[in-house]
Amino acid sequence: MKYLDEFRNGEVAKRLAREIRDATRGRWRIMEVCGGQTHSIIRNGIDQLLPEGIELIHGPGCPVCVTPLELIDKALAIALRPEVIFCSFGDMLRVPGSSQDLFAVRSQGGDVRVVYSPLDAVKLARANPDRQVVFFGVGFETTAPANAMAVHLAKAQNVQNFSMLVSHVLVPPAIEAIMRSPGNRVQAFLAAGHVCSVMGFWQYPPLAERHRVPIVITGFEPLDVLEGIRRAVVQLEAGEARVENAYARVVTCEGNRAAQDLLAQVFTVTARAWRGIGVIPNSGWRLSPAYAEFDAEQRFDVGGIETVESPLCRSGEVLQGALKPHQCPAFGKECTPRTPLGATMVSSEGACAAYYNYGRLLEQPV
């Protein structure tokens, strides 16, 4: 049965690629928003199956990659404190700050721990009442409900030694910013299915209408991505601009209302800096006034930190879709997974990591 499924998937992939080629008359540029989609595209060579007229632009949908350098440096400063147990998902430990990363802090004696859920950090705080436990809350709308639940439980259970360093960002304002950018080249979007499984896609039709841009919600398997590209091309060729749900097995228009209600209770919308991009209005969450006592930035007073980006790193242009990773002169030379200059080389969803890990190393820089 396994081999039969693989055969069928291969045949479906060929059919979808053929339908995309047959439908393409013009030259179109489609941005996949999510870094998970980027890895699926590069790992499976989907971009190489497409006709010459279709260019895939890699978007800023890697939450680790867009976490601002200032917040990374704040995390490092907090993690170095002797009274702190600093908790994070594993993909944040190698993200470079101005001078070091969380792995380096751990080697210097900082108590930095990898957890698999923010609720683990709350349990850790209950088990260590004499220590301050801080969780690094990073991510798009997908991971936000679990982080909101952790803060909600800490308040309900009066866990006073727990706090969260929040760096949540939101997809729709990022799409708005991309479309309003003077150098914008994007003509259609593949929206991230896991984000829409939480938030639905009721926020997207105004974007599609206002900017005359097709938005297709899709998943991450190769067939999902190919189907999303096919639908986007059909709309572009027909001069249409609407939202299509190509991930209906997971996503509904309204999304998960219970999760949205919790998010609205624990977080409030704020302007957020995106690493390599800049400040986007209303593009992030911070803890609401009712939960401000659990804000690690306020608890540890880590304001006034000055940051310094590597002058060699052009990850900001990669995140904006203005540059492919292999077009950066430092790619694969000064910047590798062992010696990363930016987060896009170390994150499991980073475009530079995808190009490096899957052998896109031969193209010459421009």
The CATH topology name of the largest domain reads Rossmann fold
CATH C-level class of the largest domain is Alpha Beta
Proportion of beta-strand residues: 15-25%
Biggest sheet character: 6 strands, mixed
Instruction: Please give the share of residues in helix.
Output: 40-55%
Shape: globular
- What string gives the helices and strands in order? HEHHEHHEHEHEHEHEHHEHEHEEHHH
Q: Number of helical runs?
A: 16
CATH superfamily of the largest domain: HypD, alpha/beta domain 2
Which blocks of ≥5 consecutive residues have pLDDT under 50? none
Radius of gyration: 21 Å
The side-by-side strand order for the widest beta sheet comes to 4-3-5-6-11-10
Say how many strands there are.
Answer: 11
Structural class: alpha/beta
Query: Residue-averaged pLDDT, rounded?
Result: 92
Number of domains: 2
Report the CATH architecture of the largest domain.
Answer: 3-Layer(aba) Sandwich
Distance between the termini: 47 Å
Protein topology:
Layout: H1 2-23, E1 28-34, H2 35-43, H3 46-49, E2 54-61, H4 63-66, H5 69-79, E3 84-88, H6 102-107, E4 111-114, H7 118-127, E5 132-139, H8 144-156, E6 162-169, H9 171-180, E7 188-192, H10 193-199, H11 204-211, E8 215-218, H12 222-238, E9 243-245, H13 257-266, E10 267-274, E11 278-287, H14 296-300, H15 315-319, H16 351-357
Parallel strand pairs: 1-2, 1-7, 3-4, 3-5, 5-6, 7-8, 8-9
Antiparallel strand pairs: 6-11, 10-11
Helix pairs in contact: 1-12, 7-8, 8-13
